[in-house]
Amino acid sequence: MVASSIIAAWADVQHALTSTTNASTQISTLNAGYVWMMANCLCTAFYSLYMRKRIKLTNFKDFDTMFYNNLLSIPVLIVATLLIEDWSAENIARNFPIASRTNILIAMVLSGLSSVFISYTSAWCMRVTSSTTYSMVGALNKLPIAVSGLIFFDAPVTLGSVSAIAIGFVSGIVYSVAKFKQNAKPKTGILPTTNIPLSASSQSMRDSLRS
After folding, report:
1. 12-18-19-21 Cα dihedral, nearest 10 degrees
2. DSSP 20-83
3. DSSP reduced 3-state for 88
4. pLDDT confidence of residue 180
5. What is the DSSP track for 165-194?
6. Where do the domains of the chain lie?
7. Distance (Å) of CA 182 to CA 114, 124, 175, 187
8. Are the C-beta atoms of residues 8 and 161 closer than 8 Å to each other?
9. Which residues are within 8 A (CB) of 11 and not within 5 positions of it... i.e. 6 or more apart?
10. Digit-coded pLDDT (tens) for 3-60
């Protein structure tokens, strides 16, 4: 999966250098995007590891994890929107035109409801699987979006981009097969929790000691 990301980044840089007259501006834009993506990856990794640990320590249910995660984000969003966003009447009229305001609000409500379900299923996946599996699922669900970007939008279709997506799908298959084989192996080194069958001589000796 890391290799597919490196190939995709290399393909973007090569395309920016060869297909535009203002290559320096294009490269600086890509570098800024890569910095933000790196920060997102680090924060997501820390969040996954810490959240899984907290779920075990607090014995949270899936609904509890979803509820408190979204509840803690509300103060941050309120402070950020009051300090950063432009709440002037002109800006509201520009972003929420009268003709399409109802549709925009309906779309926002549906997006919020969808995020609630996504948060709930993410908490469930994090609780019942490992952090590695959760991260792999999070990486794999971006591949259909990458494919749709090549098909429906003007994202450049290059050998590097197609190869990166293909390697990502292959890595998901390899991980699934490896995980299936790991779960299929008999677990050794674990003390039995049930009575071990005894031979006839051992059973008769135990009965004599009890009597």
Report:
1. 120
2. -S-HHHHHHHHHHHHHHHHHHHHHHHHHHHHHHHHHHHHT--HHHHHHHHHHHHHHHHHHHHHH
3. coil
4. 79
5. HHHHHHHHHHHHHHHHHHHHSPP-S---SS
6. 2-71+101-182
7. 34, 21, 10, 9
8. yes
9. 156, 158, 159, 160, 161, 163, 164
10. 777 777 777 777 777 765 676 777 777 778 888 888 888 888 888 888 888 888 888 8
Predicted confidence band at 75 (pLDDT cuts at 50, 70, 90)?
A: very high
What is the rounded average pLDDT of the residues 164-174? 84
Interatomic CA distance for residues 122 and 70, integer angstroms:
12
Residues composing the chain? 211
User: How many whole angstroms separate alpha carbon 105 and alpha carbon 185?
Assistant: 52
Tell me if 93 sits within 8 A of 28, measured CB to CB: no
Kindly state the tokens that stand for 70. Answer: 């979204």
Distance between CA atoms of residues 192 and 211, nearest Å: 27
| pLDDT value at residue 62 | 82
Nearest to 119 by CA among 162, 151, 73: 73
Q: How confident is the model at residue 183 (pLDDT cuts 50, 70, 90)?
A: confident
Find where tokens 């059973």 sit. 203
Distance set, CA 63 to CA 69, 116, 210 (Å): 10, 10, 51
For residue 194, name the pLDDT band (cuts at 50, 70, 90): low
